[in-house]
Design brief:
By secondary structure, this protein is mainly alpha-helical. 86% of the residues lie in helices and 0% in strands.
């Protein structure tokens, strides 16, 4: 059992170092892409947890999605972003409110809604030409 615990600890340490390396080497644009992708993965995992009646996992995944939204809000440049940053702030705040609602109601439909919203934003973000990133 101790060997299994050590292997997990080493695997977690490796994953942490690997993640730090990716973050350090990424552009701000790529980091936002990763956050959006991570959000979609967390919401999808929350949907799976709801389908399996795993309320603890649902809460964990929705909490992570909420944290990611917080990171996206924190990353907005309100001075340079103007109305786009303001609109994204409102959208992200709406998504956060819907995540809390989805958690309280165990609603797959609400999670589908926030996934669709984020997917639309991510598609627009991914389409930004390289020279404007």
């Amino acid at each position: 059992m101790a060997a299994v615990m050590n292997n997990r600890r080493y695997a977690n340490q490796y994953a942490s170092v690997h993640t730090e390396s990716i973050v350090e080497e990424s552009t701000p644009h790529a980091l936002i892409q990763m956050l959006m992708g991570g959000f979609l993965m967390q919401v999808n995992a929350a949907k799976g947890a709801i389908a399996q009646n795993n309320w603890e996992a649902k809460s964990t995944h929705i909490s992570r999605a909420i944290s990611i939204i917080g990171g996206l809000i924190d990353g907005l440049d309100m001075e340079r972003g103007g109305s786009i940053a303001e609109n994204l702030t409102r959208l992200y705040e709406y998504i956060n409110a819907k995540l809390f609602q989805a958690s309280a109601e165990n609603s797959l439909e609400i999670l589908d809604e926030v996934s669709d919203l984020m997917r639309s934003v991510k598609e627009a973000w991914d389409a930004i030409p390289e020279e404007h990133r």
